[in-house]
Each structure stands twice: as C-alpha cells, then as structure tokens.
C-alpha cells in the first residue's frame, strides 16, 4: 500500500494531487508547525486578466505553533473576497454550478481553525475527483520508513519544474490563449468536471 505524507494545503494545486496520484493513504500532520509564505493558507486561481493568489488571514504574527492551533482571522472579510474571486474566475465555467455548492458550504461554515478548514476542503476535493485514498491524521514521531514523505517540498518559492511530480497536461481554461499550469484544483474541477482525475493522471510524472 502506498502511503504519502504531505502538508495540508488550502485548496491545493494540481501538483499536490499529481503527487498523490496512486496513494492509498494520505497522511497529514496536525502537530507540524505552521509555516509562513507557504500554501498552507493560500491558493492560486485564474481571473480574466491575471492569476490571483487568495490568502486566508490568520490571527497573530508569525505564529510558530502547530497547524491545528492556527486560528483564522475573521475580522478580515476574507470569505467574501475569496467567494467573489472564485465566482468571477469560474462562474461561467462548464461545471461551476455543479461543484461550487460543495465549496460554498465549507466557506460559509465559519470554521475557526485553519487545519479543520483545509481538511474539509481536501476531503471534498478527493470525493469530487472520485479518489478512494484514506485521509489520516498522524503524529510525525509515528512515521514509518515505508511512507513517501514529501512535506516541505511543494512551496510557492520553488517552481514545480524543479520537482518530479507534475508535468502539465493542458486542458481548456476559461480565460486567455496560453495555458496556465498548476493552479488550484478548483480550476481543473470547474473547467473539466468528471475528466479532472483523468487529466491529473496524464499530468503525473512517471516515477
């Protein structure tokens, strides 16, 4: 059984899901420390004229605390900004009306904890991709040697081409003539619907 250890990103990128292509169990770590300037609280979507980064504000400054203790800052109206951005980016996409309610429900749940929010989003993404991998929260100290550990590898500061997980397989996007690779999984789901996991399979580098 292939078991993959990975950071719990916010509405993860296509590279994230390509790296999990044949995983039967996905291990996530509530006690790993929150990292600034990471994908733990940010994702990328494509608007009409640019690629936009959506970031979830968190409480406190530079908190070196476990992920499951990171609190979301609701003094900033981030949900409205994110929902408006997603609707603007994908409202006319072929599968938007079918998939969007799943995500809207999570946005509107008022989840106070970043870890729980990301876990809810990942769970629904795996369901919509029709993947059967088990999602398991574990402690780093209990990690066995048979686990494929890619934590800390997928990060904004390094292009995906430096890693060995994702090789873009272009699909029809809503805006622009040039294909923009490695956006949030939202882009692929809203634009391709049931074909999303097949395209991810074609985008997975053969190890």
Helix content bin: 25-40%
Topology, number of strands: 6
Overall mean confidence score, pLDDT = 94
Helix and strand string, N-terminal first?
EHEEEHHHEEHH
User: Strand percentage, roughly?
Assistant: 5-15%
Q: Which of globular, elongated, flat, extended, rod-shaped describes the shape?
A: globular
The radius of gyration is 16 Å
The residue ranges in which pLDDT falls below 50 over 5 or more consecutive positions are none
User: Main β-sheet: number of strands, strand sense, barrel status?
Assistant: 4 strands, parallel
Would you give an account of this structure?
- The chain has 207 residues and is of the alpha/beta class.
- It has one domain (3-202).
- Helices cover 29% and strands 11% of the residues.
- It is built from six helices and six strands, in the order βαβββαααββαα.
- The protein has helices spanning 14-19, 78-90, 96-107, 114-128, 185-192, 196-202; strands at 3-5, 25-28, 42-46, 51-55, 134-137, 148-149.
- It has a four-stranded parallel β-sheet with strand order 5-2-1-6, with no helix packed on it. A two-stranded antiparallel ribbon has the order 3-4.
- Strand 3 (42-46) and strand 4 (51-55) form a beta hairpin.
- Helix 3 runs antiparallel to helix 4 (114-128).
- It starts with a strand and ends in a 5-residue tail after the last helix.
- The mean pLDDT is 94.
């Amino acid at each position: 059984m292939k078991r993959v250890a990975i950071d719990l990103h916010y509405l993860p990128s296509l590279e994230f899901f390509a790296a999990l292509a044949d995983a039967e169990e996905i291990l996530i770590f509530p006690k790993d420390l929150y990292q600034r300037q990471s994908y733990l609280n940010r994702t990328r979507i494509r608007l009409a004229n640019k690629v936009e980064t959506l970031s979830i504000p968190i409480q406190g400054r530079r908190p070196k605390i476990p992920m499951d203790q990171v609190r979301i800052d609701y003094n900033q109206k981030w949900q409205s900004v994110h929902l408006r951005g997603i609707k603007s980016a994908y409202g006319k996409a072929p599968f938007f009306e079918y998939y969007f309610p799943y995500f809207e429900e999570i946005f509107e749940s008022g989840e106070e904890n970043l870890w729980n929010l990301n876990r809810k989003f990942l769970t629904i993404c795996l369901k919509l991709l029709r993947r059967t991998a088990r999602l398991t929260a574990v402690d780093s100290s209990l990690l066995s040697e048979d686990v494929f550990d890619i934590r800390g590898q997928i990060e904004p500061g390094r292009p995906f081409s430096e890693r060995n997980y994702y090789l873009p397989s272009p699909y029809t996007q809503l805006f622009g003539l040039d294909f923009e690779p490695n956006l949030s999984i939202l882009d692929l789901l809203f634009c391709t619907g049931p074909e999303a996991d097949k395209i991810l399979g074609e985008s997975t580098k053969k190890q």
